[in-house]
Amino acid sequence: MSTQPQQPEPPEGAVAEPGQEQDLPAPGTAEARGAGPEGPGPDAAGGPAGPGEEADEKAEHAAALAELEDRWRRALADLENLRKRHARELERERAAERARTAAALLPVIDNLELALSHAGADPGSIVAGVRAVRDQAVDTLARLGYARQDETGVPFDPARHEVVGVVEDPDVAPGTVVQVLRPGYGETGNQLRPVAVAVAKRE
User: Fold this and answer.
1) Residues 138-160: pLDDT tens digits?
2) Share of the chain above pLDDT 70, in %
3) What pLDDT sits at residue 37?
4) How many Cβ atoms from other residues are within 10 Å of residue 145's Cβ?
5) What span, in angstroms and rounded, lies between the C-alpha atoms of 142 and 171?
6) In a 3-state reduction of DSSP, which class is residue 35?
7) Which of 109, 159, 172, 174 is nearest to 137 (CA)?
8) The pTM of the whole model exceeds 0.70
9) 88-116 pLDDT per residue, tens
10) Could you tell me if 182 and 196 are in contact, meaning their C-beta atoms sit under 8 angstroms apart?
């Protein structure tokens, strides 16, 4: 009785040649489920998030976005209310300032009417009364922040003066105010109107 020589077993991991049988993993083992040396498959712990987790993240993002939008709309509403309140307060301040200015001019008007009521009296007294009313009006403007400006002999200042004439005067330095044709009111930076002047020049 003859015996056939036994074939040596292929090394582990080698591909079986045709005609040779290859050992397959047993059903139910990790190798049969596709888990190799790289680690567990995508369904194991630590893999990609499932549909439920993605839905939860989307819901959280939508809630955060809704909260930010609500805050933004509230901030816009508060800003609009502040703007309207500021406009109302500014209009009240303007009305109050107009009322204060008009009240300051009322005594001037009263004295003018008093002077006109004595038009048939002595002309000298009428002139004195009109001058007194003028002085009262000038004082009222000064108290409102617009003092009278009518100086002569001062250097010409383009911020305060308006040249309406030139006079030849060899005894005065060129550019000196020699005549005030119309007084001005207010200081530089808070001027009601400039002083109309004539300045000196030389040949």
Assistant:
1) 999 999 889 999 999 999 999 99
2) 74
3) 47
4) 11
5) 34
6) coil
7) 109
8) no
9) 999 999 999 889 888 988 999 898 888 87
10) yes
| Distance from chain centroid for Cα 174 | 47
What residue spans of 31-148 are helical by DSSP H? 51-117, 123-143
Tokens of 72: 């933004």
Cα 144 from Cα 133, distance rounded (Å): 17
170-183 per-residue burial string, b: 16 or more CB within 10 A, e: under 16: eebeeebbbebeee
Rounded distance, CA 111 to CA 128, Å?
12
β-strand partners of 185: 148, 193
**Residue length, the chain?**
203
Whole-number Å distance between alpha carbons of 126 and 170: 41
User: Would you call 194 helix, strand, or coil by DSSP?
Assistant: coil
Mapping DSSP to helix (H, G, I), strand (E, B) and coil, where does residue 58 land? Answer: helix
Q: What is the largest CA-CA distance in the chain?
A: 174
Q: In which residue are the tokens 């002047």 written?
A: 197
